[in-house]
Structures are given as C-alpha cells and as structure tokens.
Write a structure and sequence with these properties.
The protein is α/β, with parallel strands linked by helices. It has a single domain, classed as Rossmann fold. It has 10 helices and 9 strands. The protein has a 5-stranded parallel sheet, with helices on both faces. Strands 4-3-6-7 form a 4-stranded antiparallel sheet. α5 packs parallel to α6. The longest helix is centred in the middle third of the chain and has 19 residues.
Length: 278
C-alpha cells in the first residue's frame, strides 16, 4: 500500500512539472536584447518636402545689360529669339572695367581703367534708375584678371589686397543697380581663349586665358550674391570643355568678344537661369 501511494505522488509531481504548474516563475531576461526598442529607433523618419520648382517669370522680362565690351558684343550679336524671353536694353560701356587703376599684363600691355571710364558707377546708377529693369545683368571680367597699379601701390592678382579692392568696387556697383529696385544677376566669367595674333586692340592679354584666374573671379562674384536680390548666373561650360567652341573664332573673334554663334550659345544657357530668378 505504501509503495502504491509513493508511485501515485511521483506521477502527480511529474504531471505538474510537465504542465508548468507548481513551479517558480522564470526570471525575466535582462539586458538590451530584452528591452523594448527606443522611441528614437522605432520612429519613422520625418517626410522630406520636395524642393519646390522655381516659379518662371512671365515673359518678356525687362533686362538691362551692364558691363564692359563683352556685354556690348553680346547685345549687338544677340539672336532674334532672345526677344521672346527678354526685353533687353544695352547699358554697357566698352573698354570699361570696374577696378580703379591701371591693369598690367606680362605681355607688356597696359590699360588705364580710370582714364577710360572715370564715372562708371554713377553711369550704372543713373541708367538703372532711368530704365527700371526687372533684372540688371552684369557682364564683366575681361579687365579683372590682371595685376592692378593704383595711385599708391601695385596689387598682385588674387592677393587679399587685390580681392578687397575688387569686392569693394563690385559691391558698390551692385548697390547702385539695386537702388533702382532691380534684381541683380552677376554673369560668371567663361574660359577666355585669347590669341597672340589678336589685333591691338584688343591685343593679346594672355592672363585672360588662364582658367585659374577666371575661376578666382567667379569665386569672388559668388561672395557678393545673397540668394534674395543678387544672384550668379553661369555661362555655358562649353567655352571651357570644348576646344572647337572655346578656341573657335566663329564664336568669339578674339577669344573674348562674342559673335552670333557665341552669343546664341551664351544666351541659350543664361536665359533659363534669368527667368527663374525671384
């Protein structure tokens, strides 16, 4: 009888173990793998807002082109199709750079910018006030890649003193144009390809063909932009990347000043940028 009782209790104990009854709770696991994921880990990334498409201006846009003889050449050789997009007027001054002093080339060529255009700043201001353009398009650069001799000293191109002098003049010009209420578009310098055989004028001026110089001026132009009223527009890269264009006298007769094919290439690249300026 005692043996059967013991066997019965053994059977009951086995049943309790197998069913999990009568046993102590298993302690909860601890450590990072057992914890709930953090809110940061489970939170979905915020939706990204797509960049809005720039609003295109109604055409034709009233644009006045300011600058040196490059601007004059662009206006004079512009294709007829420009009129569909721009009501363009010419406020350029040939042989007129914005720096104050005498530019000097290693070729021995010299040019007195003060003597050539002593009043460029007041002319820009007066012309902008008179024309009241929606956009003042500035095309400079051919005179802005050289050492500069002022009344007091010589400024070597690309030095801090040279940069300061250039930026001071550029900001003065932009301020004069802005006083009319116009938005200002600063046209980047293309790659120039001057030739030693060029007649004088325009002459050779070999520094114009050094792309690191034009890139440096473009960097300075971008420093003056503000994203609200002053913008940079980019000329076609083809003048740098395609020798059959950049060094082709049919596009620019002297590697600097535009003929009709060059002007068409330039306006085709720049007009879409102008039409989306705010």
């Amino acid at each position: 009888m005692g043996h059967r009782v013991r066997m019965r209790w053994v059977a009951i104990a086995l049943t309790l173990v197998l069913t999990g009854c009568g046993t102590a709770e298993t302690p909860a696991a601890s450590g990072p793998s057992a914890t709930a994921p953090s809110a940061l880990a489970t939170q979905a990334p915020p939706p990204t807002s797509p960049t809005p498409t720039p609003t295109r201006r109604a055409t034709p846009v009233t644009v006045a082109i300011f600058g040196d003889s490059q601007a004059t050449a662009l206006f004079d050789t512009r294709p007829s199709t420009v009129a569909r997009s721009l009501r363009l007027s010419d406020q350029s001054i040939s042989a007129c750079g914005i720096l104050r002093g005498r530019v000097m080339s290693r070729s021995g060529e010299r040019f007195d910018l003060v003597g050539a255009c002593p009043n460029w700043l007041s002319a820009w201001r007066a012309d902008a006030q008179r024309v009241k353009p929606d956009i003042a398009l500035v095309v400079i650069g051919a005179w802005d890649v050289f050492d500069l001799k002022t009344k007091s000293k010589t400024l070597s191109f690309g030095t801090p003193d040279w940069d300061t002098a250039f930026l001071k003049q550029l900001r003065s010009g932009v301020s004069a144009l802005r006083s009319s209420g116009a938005q200002v578009a600063l046209a980047g310098l293309p790659c120039y390809r001057p030739r030693k055989s060029n007649p004088r004028p325009p002459g050779w001026w070999p520094e114009r063909g050094e792309d690191d110089r034009t890139r440096h001026v473009n960097d300075l132009l971008r420093q003056v932009t503000d994203g609200s009223h002053v913008f940079a527009v980019t000329p076609p890269a083809t003048f740098c990347t395609d020798k059959s264009v950049g060094d082709n006298h049919k596009y620019r007769y002297d590697g600097v000043h535009y003929l009709q094919p060059g002007a068409k290439l330039w306006f085709d690249a720049v007009i879409p940028q102008l039409l989306v300026l705010p």
